[in-house]
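Quick one before lunch.
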Amino acid sequence: MRTPGFVVIFWRDMLRFVRFRTLLLSSLVQPALWMAFFGIAMSANFNLLTAEIPVPSGLNEVNYLTFMSAGVIAMTTLFTSLYGGITLLFDKNWGLLREVFASPLRRTDIIIGIGLSVVVKSVLQALIILGFGILLGVQYFPGYSPSEVAVAVAGIILFVTVFALGFVFLSSAISITMESPEGLQGVITLLTMPIFFASNALYPIEAFPDVLMVISAYNPLTFLVNGLRYFAIGDSFFALGKMYSYGAVEVVTSLTGLVVFTVLMFSIALWRFRRAVVT
Amino acid sequence: MPDTIISVNGLIHRYGDTEAVRNISFEIADGEIFSFLGPNGAGKSTVINVLTTLLPVQQGHASIAGFDVMVDPGEVRRRIGIVFQEVTLDRDMTVSETLAFHGMLYDMPRDLMKSRIQELIGIVELSGKRDTLTKHLSGGMKRRLEIARGLMTRPRVLFLDEPTIGLDPQTRMRIWDYIHQINREGTTIFLTTHYMDEADQLSDRIGIIDHGQIVTSGKPIDLKNALGQDLIYLETTDNSSAIRIASTQEAIISGEQKKNGVVFIVSEDGTRILPRIIDLLRENGIGVLTINMKKPSMDDVFVHHTGREIRDAGPEKGFSPKSRPGRR
Ligand SMILES: Nc1ncnc2c1ncn2[C@@H]1O[C@H](COP(=O)(O)OP(=O)(O)OP(=O)(O)O)[C@@H](O)[C@H]1O
Ligand SMILES: [Mg+2]
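Model of the magnesium ion complex:
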């Protein structure tokens, strides 16, 4: 039995993930904490503000916690995947990457191996948020049959996977290019802000100025949130005094957008890795 | 006549304006132990990094086992093992995980990998440390583990960049034993070092490298013999005149002024020439204060070819009384 190249890299990254107990725990507890504190605090506010707005008949009204829990999954996935490539910078600076670069392993295997590891972490976190959300009273999967729930969970995992791959590829490309961890930290923070706030993760985007609205319409995070809400809450619902409806077209468009983004990021990563010199 | 396994031709490597490797050419025969001996910054690691495909070939040619390093890096990588100058172990992996990871990188079959790990851990005497994290190993153990890692795939060529740097004498000698053992089993060894004794004891052939160039190369014994029979060190009342006067003797190949004395390289048995030189100097009114004499060492070969000491040692240190008693 032989091992495909990317599995070797994946194995090592998971080994570290499991070995650092604190890292493991914090990455699993952190999203739950977001839900618990930010979610509950904000939802108390929003529910108060929007309580007076009449709900059109026949529409499923969801509370703010339900609305934003998709945002919390999206945000957690964004952070996990954007920071997922940083390990490469440390490996490079500590000389650990030399062993790999001098071996017959293909560069694509490194990119995919790290990607896979981040996907596993992200999916795990998403499932924890879903589970914890249900404990907190989030109204996921309203009136779904068990098989519909299974499809919905599969859909969520699909969206999280494609999105996480896109951003971990981006993160890997930056990490292999840069020299200093501090610089990398800065670049990633700089990226996170607009991606996170110019999206529909925590609030509706309709009230945005035009420019911001265009940006957020093409924001991969918006694509992800669209998919998550469609699968977790349903194709139409009422939240924050506004009606949301996601048709099959929106979901397919969002998924296509994510796939295009991810393929693009993979090409960039490959280009950076082919050029990388590690001594 | 064994085949050539490494062949380097006109290799040049620059880092920006620094020319680290300046037109180096050499060949290594299959099964040989070849050393690059040179001071810090000579360009040793740069050559290794180019040969192991970590740095691109900027100018010149290099091939290993018949594969051009630039054209077929994948084929080259499959045939080599490397022990880097700096420690490159993952601190948070255990000894056996480190070796397994390496084996998997080279796509080794599982069974072979398991037996190889078992065997190598025994050879480098880490059996009790199988499941110890590498951060809990001592410096010498880390080095031994890295050597074991370099051997996991039974490479045709093993590159060792300063394999015993910073290790105690016992550990160094044990590592030399491993290197000999590996070599006997058919692996060609290319090592770099700035330890004279290491190059001297280990190598079939040495290339002395300085400022990015090979200044001389050959078998250790030939390099030393080329320096003459003996080295004589004298401290006199007038060192510069002593050189002028003694150099009239035919057996004296060269005389060189050092900090406090002079060093003569002689082509005959020094014990016979020395009394003549002392008499000659005395006749010319020059008093001899100290005498020391010894066979040329690698240090002397190095100084002779590069014009400087590899370490910050005065000439007196090279002439320790142990080498041959001659003080009076
Ligand atoms: N990455 C780099 N960037 C710029 N200059 C470098 C780099 N690596 C090495 N050099 C320079 O190239 C020259 C040769 O360095 P190299 O590391 O090959 O020497 P070395 O013989 O291995 O020395 P040492 O015994 O200290 O390891 C030195 O002048 C060094 O400063
Ligand atoms: Mg070096």
